[in-house]
């Protein structure tokens, strides 16, 4: 598919699609497991959660392989700096959300920051490879920031919402991430 860019770009592309699939599986799990006033069978919730985890692990594996194997034709930002920024961001958000706003820390905070770091490293790789222009890369960085801000807002207000509003609030970050990954895959496919 990406013959001009080698197999690494194919692997990265499949990883991006798999991350969109992971968001879809996570949406299904959330919809089943947290539906107010009705308890889903534990086996169904378990299957959906395992499917989400498997898709997520496959996505991170493929995206990492693609990132590390892609040859750059121009200089991007160091992936190490992006990852260090993510660690600092996570610690700051953890402290602020827990100590300042007294919000119980859950894995969603880690997933939000982890997705942002992976997405920014991916955009950086696509820029360095020559597939994305500087303009497209900036657009995807802004999109990533918008998804993170929206997801953090949903994260912060979740426990203050009534049942149905909380249920809907839980869907929003997953929908945003899924759409962002599908848009990225679409632009990658178009630019190949």
From TrEMBL:
TM ranges: 12-35, 42-60, 80-101, 108-128, 134-158, 170-190
Keyword terms: Membrane, Transmembrane, Transmembrane helix
Protein name: Uncharacterized protein
Organism the protein comes from: Blautia difficilis
């Amino acid at each position: 598919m990406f013959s001009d860019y080698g197999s690494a770009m194919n692997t990265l592309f499949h990883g991006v699609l798999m991350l969109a699939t992971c968001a879809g599986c996570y949406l299904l799990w959330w919809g089943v497991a947290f539906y107010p006033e009705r308890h889903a069978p534990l086996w169904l919730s378990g299957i959906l959660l395992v499917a989400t985890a498997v898709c997520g692990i496959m996505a991170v594996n493929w995206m990492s392989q693609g990132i590390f194997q892609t040859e750059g034709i121009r200089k991007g930002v160091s992936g190490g700096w992006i990852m260090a920024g993510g660690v600092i961001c996570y610690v700051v958000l953890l402290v602020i959300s827990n100590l300042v706003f007294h919000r119980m820390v859950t894995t969603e905070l880690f997933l939000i920051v982890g997705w942002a770091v992976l997405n920014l490293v991916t955009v950086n790789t696509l820029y360095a490879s020559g597939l994305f222009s500087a303009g497209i890369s900036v657009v995807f960085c802004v999109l990533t920031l918008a998804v993170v801000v929206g997801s953090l807002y949903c994260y912060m207000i979740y426990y203050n919402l009534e049942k149905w509003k909380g249920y809907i609030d839980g869907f929003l970050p997953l929908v945003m991430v899924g759409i962002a990954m599908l848009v990225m895959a679409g632009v990658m496919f178009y630019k190949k």
